[in-house]
Structure formats: C-alpha cells, structure tokens
DNA sequence: TAAATAGTGTCTCTGAGACATTATATT
DNA sequence: AATATAATGTCTCAGAGACACTATTTA
C-alpha cells in the first residue's frame, strides 16, 4: 500500500525517468561472512580484529559493502576470495539470514546479509591482510567461553545462527564433505560430524550409513592414499534421505 | 577490507560526527510478504495486482519500504497487519531470505527481505485496500498453471522458495497448526499436511504420530465442538522429533 | 607386538506404513 | 440405516544403535 505501488498508470519509460531514488533514507547494504572450517579438530570461524571505530578492538565477521550492480551472492563470493584467497569452488556458500536492527551499526542504518561458508582448512592460504595480526581463526568454544573476546555489532547472534545452521545442515545434506579436501577417509568424515555435533559416533554404524546413501561418497581407487586407508571423494548427492539422526546434543534429557 | 573498517583510530564520537552516509549508492530496503493460508482445501497466497508501473497488471507480493528506525521483523509485522487486518499473534512470521539482484526492480536498487507467514483463513478479515478488486488469494496451483497470471519482479522465485520452505517446515516443526484456528480436529490437522504435501496420509497412523509427540496437540475438553469430533488445541512443542517422514512427493521413484 | 582404523556381522528396539476393526456422530 | 470420521490394534519392514569381531596398517 505504498505510494510507489499505487502510482497512476503512465508509460513505463517516462515513469522511470521521473523516478527519484534519492528521496529514501540512506541505507547501506553489506554482506557479512560466517566462514566455518575445522581447525585442529575444532569448529572455527574467521574473524577480524577491528582497528577503527566503532567497536575498536572487538572481533568482527569479515564483510563489506555490496557494490553498485553487484548481486548479493556475488558480493559474498568476492569477499570470500578477498579474505581468504580460497578457490571459490571448493567452499560452500549459502545465504544465512539478514540482520537489520536499526542501531546495529552506530554510523548509519546498515542492513547486513549474512552468508554462511563451509571450507576445508587445507585450502585456505594464510590471510594476508593489511595487518596480518588482525585476522585469525577462532574456535567457536573459545569465542563463547567465559574469557572470550568482545564481538562487534550483532555478530554474536550471527555466529550463533551460523553454527546452529551448520549443525542442522549436515543432518540432511552432504555438506560435511565441504570441510574436507578432495579425498578423505571415512574416519575423517566421521570426525567432521563428531566435531560439529560435539559427540562420538560409532565408526561401524557411521560408515554403513554413509556408504548406504547413494552418491554421498565415492570410493577413490583401491586403497590409495593417506595411511593406506581407503580414500573417498564427494559424490553427486546433495541430500541425505533419510537424514542422519543427530543424537541428543549433550547429555540425556532428564 | 573496506576503507570504513580500516579507518585510523580516533575518538568514537568525533569519528561518528565526521561520518558521511550519503556517499553510498542509493539502495532501498523493502520487506515482501509471502502470506500462506489454506483456502478451500488449497494452499494459497495473498497477491496484489499492480496498478502502476513497473509490472503494471502483474501480480505481486504485498510489501513495502522499511521505515527509518524500524526493525526488519517489525516492518514485516506492520505490513501483515496493514494487508490483512490479521491479529498478528495468530500468524507465524519468519524471515525467508533476501533478494537483491541489481536489476530486480527497474526503478532503482532494491534489496528485499522476504518474510514467510502462515495463517488460518478464518482469522483473515477481507482485505480492504484502496481498490478492493486488486487483492486476492491465489491457489499456488493456479498461480503456476499453464494459464497462470504474470508475476511481478522476481516474485515467482520468492513464492517458490516460500512454498518449498513451508513444505519442509511442517516436517520438523508444529507449524502446521498455524493454518488452523484455536481448536481443530485431528482430521483438520491431517488435511493441512495433505494439502501442503499434495498427498494422502493414513488417518490412523497420522493420529498416532501426532498424539505421540509430547506437546504437539492438547485435547480440548471432552469431545466439545465441531461435529462432536474430539477437539484439540496447539500445544507448547515447536519441534517434532523425530520429524514427519514426508512420503516421496508425487509418484514413486523410477 | 601393540595400537589404531576400516569394515562386517548380529541383535535389539523404535517408528513408519498397511491394513482391519471398533466406536461414535451425521445424514 | 448408510456414511464419515476418530481412534485402536496388529503385523511387517527399514533403519538406528550397541557391540563383538576381522583385517589391515602404522608405530
């Protein structure tokens, strides 16, 4: 029921010519990246220590403004490359959700479209920023520990949403393989689940489940590589049906 | 790695004072509403016929600009009330996803945060807009039929995303009850599933499943109402564990 | 040789699906 | 009485989980 929508009919060309975009309040649209990987057996996220105001000294998700004539997804992938030098196609990128509380950035109204990325640690080239010391991977546990660092903006919420989405996504998709290199053993894949869900899984049952899902993993030649354990590579399937049953997260239901 | 983030340190107050928001390209942020209900046994969505350019005569999702100092969720709920007069608390509202392709609106750069709403038909007061004939519920089937209407902007995609999200959401949440009034019979609840999934479910098995999930439905007194069938009301549970198993959507696999 | 890991083989239990059956209410 | 719907009972089957066991490789 806005004025724009109820404008009286006219030729479309002249309508557009008479349209004045500057009458809107200034809003900036940014993309923020929740970049998850598994580092030293811990689910971790890439953060940047802010050198300037606001939230100087706090840690923030990498991100930046969406360029004129740039798609949101494109902006997210561009930022990903800029921040990590990662070959874009090895990482999974999906939209997480959009955060737009009016005062989330004290400078101005900023609506931020957050993206969630899963990537293998092995593919990340050390991030060479303007100031190398300001970028690092944080284990999620350390981030939310008692003596954890300050987080900028509403990024605590964004990170929590990202982790929760990650946990549930590997239940019904094959995205857990996004945390691994091109080839991997079933033990390595199992360890991804164990790390993200923070529990132990039975190796036998896990392997049976994985191999029973058509197209989840593909045997990669006869016991080729690492430790002479059988190697697999990611298959064409994207959904797991029926999904993994995630055991009760942490402790039994009293 | 933007200029804004790497600004040299200074007092926060003076930094903010010197900050000029007008240097950004003009972007408008809107919310669009995918309002789903079940009307005459068909999953349906509320659309508005556009009276002005662009996409004059095409059908579009209701929506509008996010006000200055207004939260995205607040804007969505405000639009919901404006469009339907629905009591906000009977409807479920959640963020769907954000659409920001540069040319999705020919007038200017518009980033639209789409929201998904489930509501009972019974709660909708007929929408009295400026021009009553331009607002109506469309059955999803009719919308995507051969001779379906033109849809404005990228709303075909938004609607498809909304329907897909709806279909999967009722698998693992109790949101199907959002399509029903305060009290309902198990048959009515079953019909919601059958409508959204477009298939038939066994009444016996369905009822057993529903009643086995603690807090999904609560018996509402001894066979009170409608047709003297046992009535239930929505319970406190929000998740269904283990989830409903959605039978293969349409026809068997190969 | 000892330890770790991949994979198999059982056995049990839960839950889904296909019915048939009963109870109750509507027409 | 005929019909529709709610609910129960039974049986079968798929899949998850517990766990023992084998084979292989690494240290």
Care to give the gist of this entry?
2 copies of one chain form a homodimer. By secondary structure, chain A is α+β, with helices and mostly antiparallel strands. The first copy, chain A, is built from 7 helices and 10 strands.
Topology:
The structure is a homodimer of 254-residue chains.
Chain A: H1 3-6, H2 12-17, E1 28-39, E2 42-49, E3 59-60, E4 63-65, H3 72-84, E5 92-99, E6 110-118, E7 135-139, H4 140-143, H5 155-172, E8 183-184, H6 186-197, H7 203-212, E9 217-219, E10 232-234
Parallel strand pairs in A: 1-6
Antiparallel strand pairs in A: 1-2, 1-4, 2-3, 2-7, 5-6, 8-10, 9-10
Chain A binds a DNA duplex (27 and 27 nucleotides) through helix 7.
Describe the structure in your own words.
Chain A has helices spanning 3-6, 12-17, 72-84, 140-143, 155-172, 186-197, 203-212; strands at residues 28-39, 42-49, 59-60, 63-65, 92-99, 110-118, 135-139, 183-184, 217-219, 232-234. With 254 residues, chain A is an alpha+beta fold. In chain A, the strands form two sheets. In chain A, strands 1, 2, 3, 4, 5, 6 and 7 form a seven-stranded mixed beta sheet that branches. The first copy, chain A, has a three-stranded antiparallel beta sheet with strand order 8-10-9. In chain A, β1 (28-39) and β2 form a beta hairpin. The N and C termini of chain A lie far apart (51 Å). The relative contact order of chain A is 0.14. Residues 1-10 and 250-254 of chain A have low confidence and may be disordered. At the A-B interface, α1, α2, α3 and β5 of A face α1, α2 and β5 of B. The first copy, chain A, binds a DNA duplex (27 and 27 nucleotides) through α7.
């Amino acid at each position: 029921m806005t004025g724009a929508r109820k404008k009286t009919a006219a030729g479309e060309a002249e309508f557009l010519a008479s349209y004045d975009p500057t009458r809107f309040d200034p809003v900036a649209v940014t993309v923020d990246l929740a970049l998850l990987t598994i580092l030293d057996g811990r689910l971790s996220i890439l953060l940047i220590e802010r050198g300037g105001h606001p939230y100087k000294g706090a840690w923030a998700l990498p991100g930046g403004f969406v360029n004129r004539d740039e798609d949101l997804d494109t902006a997210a992938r561009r930022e990903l490359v800029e921040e990590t030098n990662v070959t874009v196609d090895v990482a999974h990128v999906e939209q997480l959700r959009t955060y737009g509380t009016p005062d989330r950035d004290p400078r101005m109204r900023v609506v931020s479209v957050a993206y969630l990325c899963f990537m293998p640690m092995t593919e990340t080239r050390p991030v060479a920023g303007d100031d190398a010391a300001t970028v690092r991977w944080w284990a999620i546990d350390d981030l939310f520990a008692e003596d954890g660092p300050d987080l900028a903006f509403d990024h605590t919420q964004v990170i929590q949403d990202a982790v929760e989405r990650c946990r549930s996504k590997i239940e019904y998709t094959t995205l857990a393989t996004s945390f691994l290199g091109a080839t991997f053993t079933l033990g390595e894949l199992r360890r991804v689940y164990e790390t993200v869900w923070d529990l132990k899984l039975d190796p036998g049952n896990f392997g049976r489940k994985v191999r029973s899902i058509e197209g989840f993993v593909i045997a990669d030649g006869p016991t080729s590589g690492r430790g002479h354990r059988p190697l697999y590579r990611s298959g064409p399937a994207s959904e797991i049906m029926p999904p993994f049953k995630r055991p009760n997260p942490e402790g039994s239901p009293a």
